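Model it.
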Amino acid sequence: MTDGTVLRRQIVDAARHLVERGLNRAAAGNVSARCDEGFLITPSGVHAMELKPEQIVFMDMEGNPVQGALKPSSEWRMHRDIYANRPEAQAVIHTHSDHATALACLGEPIPAFHYMVAMAGGELIDCAPYATFGTEELSRNMLRALGNRRAVLLSHHGVIVHGKSMDNALTLAEEVEGLARQYILARSIGHPKTLPEDEMVRVLKLFRRYGQKDDD
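Modeled.
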């Protein structure tokens, strides 16, 4: 197994960034990165601002801690199951960000009220049914609601996203929270209309070429 030095630092930096941006508080939430035949994940109950690279736990795909003196995050199953089912996923971030969590506590998805919902890879950001944190049931619910998308709300809990890199996952976590905030604001003054399905299909196709990519 590689020592994962760069990935460990990325995980620590991401966990701290989430706290600094207000997407998590103290030891809430968790961050992981795919590594060799397993993944590296934040330990349970350690304040993000006190986290050190050597405290990051390496786990195999059977869910066994292989390297690290601390217990892994209680939510390791969700991370493992995303890596097992989504080969493109290289990083996973779980937050308790305020606005996304508020919608999750209502059991409501984020609909296509804004075209940027497509950033998560679908026509909405769904909400998984509630299950106790850290359980296999929660992970199963999460996978079903996630589908082929890259973000999902967790009822009475928070949100989880994955990306092709740590920066990509961080960007998506912030975007989901921003969309949740905008949706709540829009609902506070009216009834936001959702974009039609054909428009979201068009936007999703455009997003595949979005950014500094060739137009071929």
